[in-house]
Amino acid sequence: MNHKPPHIPEDPPSQYTYRVATKDGGTRLDKFLSNQHTQISRQRIKALILQGQVIVDGRTIDDASYGVKPREDICIAIPPVKEIPIVAQSIPLNVLYEDNEIIVINKQAGLVVHPAPGNPDLTLVNALIFHCGKSLSGIGGDRRPGIVHRLDKDTSGIMVAAKNDSAHITLTRAFETRSIERQYIAIVWGSIDKKGEFKGSIGRDPFNRKRLAVVQRGGKSAYTRFQCIRPLGHSASLIKCNLGTGRTHQIRVHLSHAGYPIVGDSLYGGNRKQYIKRITNKIGTSISRQALHAVSLGFKHPKTGRPLTFHTELPHDMLELIDDLERS
To answer: Which residues are catalytic?
Structure first.
């Protein structure tokens, strides 16, 4: 006779109710709740709002931008953190700094940051769980323990991860308030101006759902500063970019929209046959991903408040590409 294992009911969500003070009238719902419930990140609160876990005066509100009104009673239901079924995997990490609060790594190109459909394992999260053990932050019960920001799979460079919930909340808010300094090095097609800025809201490309694009309506505001370091031969430029915002694919989208796609970018690279044909043999052996590297990261330590800045050298494939382009 087969016996089913007994059903173990999940713990009910915790309920918290707050009354809106006069001074808080007009505040965004997610910001109001984040200010009231400081043990949960604003990102997590936004997710709970979208899941219908917030009730305002008896009405379910699923819009994080809803402006709260004085004397409204706002109730939020916070489910217990679920165990995260992600296996620890021994994947080499280039650790630049580590203490009880954070770990800073130089991520290699080709490493996905967190599990997702199509990449269930062999990610940075799997590596961090193996390296850090049970101390790794699992705030929110999602599949991104410790992750407070991300780099694309084929973008290399510096990342910071949190090792406990307190550090996770502090770093998440630092990224939300744009108090993190991030600098990237990119190799782009074309002769770019000495310095400048790109501004343009980023949203889903209406003609290709796999891409993002600069859009006229909707989207999220994005701002990238850039400066040319030097030209690379007659066909490309070496530039540095500083992020004013941190949107998905931001640098890649802004550069492509401006007519300077990143070399090797298969999604936003555009049609540069006149350049590619000239150095096909060299390019084919020097790089197989977008030539983008997060070279510098600066932030305040989440516990001590001490300013920290980390730098790293360009990876070998980008250095080889620079040599190839300068000889082209």
So the answer is: 152
